[in-house]
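for the writeup, i need someone to sanity check this before i put it in the appendix. the sequnce is what the collaborator sent (i think, or maybe the updated version? ugh). structure was predicted straight from it, no edits. if anything looks off just tell me and ill rerun, i have time this weekend
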Amino acid sequence: MKSRGLFAVAAAALILSGCSGKNEAKPIELSYSIFFPSTHLQARTAEDWAGEIEKRTQGRVTIHIYAGETLTKAGQVYEGVVNGISDIGMSAFAYTRGRFPLLEALDLPMGYPDGITATRIANQVARKYRPAELQDVEVMYLHAHGPGLLASRKRVEKLSDLAGMKIRGTGLSAKIVAALGAVPVSMSQGETYEALQKGVVDATLCPVETLKGWKQAEVIQYVTDTRVIGYTTAMFVVMNKKKWESIPEDLRKIISRTNEEWIEKQGRAWDLADEEGAALVKSLGRTVVELSDSEKAAFVKAMEPILAEYVSSVDSKGLPGAGVIADIREMLKKR
């Protein structure tokens, strides 16, 4: 009887142990495709986000990062998330022009003063309008770089100085270049250094962080402060909708709280990168040119056709283009 009793206790212990094992939630592993190289500050800030989520969920959520387009190319990141190639993805809306018609407003030359402002506005617009173009994913948060400035080989201090100048610009920035009376020349950032060095182009339109990241400060002499028409490039961080819905509610709340904090962190990272770019420009003795008030007004007026084209295009799709433009303007006033 004694041995039978011991056997029963042991069996019960094994059963309880087995049940306990079954009840232990298996860690949720998520893949995260990022188009930035792993060395880029934005990729490192995203890695911090992933690490913070793992910490706050006590290891119940683990995020594996695939940077530098190793899982999906920049223009394929969004659809890759929708189709489950990656669980999470970060890229720029602009890489798939036409796919996000309403949110193209975010990139327009509205006069963004810095990255944190552009980032906050991007999130405010997305939350207010909840555009159908984002309904097939769960948005973690958006972020956006600081204003595009004019970096040139020769001094530019008024709009007329730009007449006939060859300026590197692609996509939206090419439209801005043309509206300023210059000649847009399309090329990748990797080609721009040599093009400036050899005089193939006279200038480039870019956020100042690019002047350090791509070493272009070495081959320009002037930076004209064109923040009055500062454009940005809005980026998304999104998760596959089914994957998001499969995550327990308590963990989703933790992720959502972390997202709120990273709106600020990701925006500040853009500004830090711009500060580093500006410091390099200064250390190399390059000249920063400030526009007069009358020239600022002339630059702003030159952008009106671009904004009008956006409104016309979006309104024709039954979307509130004029409303978004008005909201961004109001948000810029209240920043």
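DSSP finds twelve helices and eleven strands in the chain. The CA atoms of residues 12 and 18 lie 10 Å apart.
thx in advance!!
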